[in-house]
Amino acid sequence: MAILRLENGILHKDLEDITRELASLNVQLNRWNVGSDRQFHDLLAKDSLNEAEKEQVLQALDGYFEQLQQTAGYQSRDLIVLHPGIPNLDELLAKFAKIHTHADDEVRYIIDGEAVFGFVRPDGSQVELTVQPQEYINVPAKTEHWFHLTPLRRVKAVRYFITTEGWVPEYTAREIRIPQAVG
Hints:
Layout: E1 3-6, E2 11-12, H1 15-22, E3 28-31, H2 38-45, H3 51-60, H4 62-72, E4 76-82, H5 89-94, E5 100-101, E6 106-113, E7 115-120, E8 126-131, E9 135-139, E10 145-149, E11 155-161, E12 170-171
Antiparallel strand pairs: 1-2, 1-8, 3-9, 4-11, 5-12, 6-9, 6-11, 7-8, 7-10
């Protein structure tokens, strides 16, 4: 279940409340079931996956990709697997830990672990949304946001792209005012 933390420390766990708080940003948050296939869940339980295993996971979830292709013109997808054992994990994450925008939507389907997306709302206030397994998020193009992992420091997420060029971060001059939660 997603958790939204407002700048004043108030937490929202109800999807209706979260949706209301994010309405001005047009951020979409949905729940997509990963199913109950034992082999699929065995793959999710592993820290790392080789390329063949990643493709197996992606193919198992391609029904969602086909929907996005038909309804919104998405062209490609990949699977990102982040965990504490990855060399240079902090450096990899650092480029998304500052407020930035993208030319295209940023679309993620968290299938294991969790991640935090922070947002600057039109009124300048900031919020952070913890996205958990089986949750899909679409951050519209040009939305000021940032990304980091929770203290668990692990996530498996399907990334959907219209074009990969549209996903390059464009940094803004704003500073993040919400302190990261400590685990």
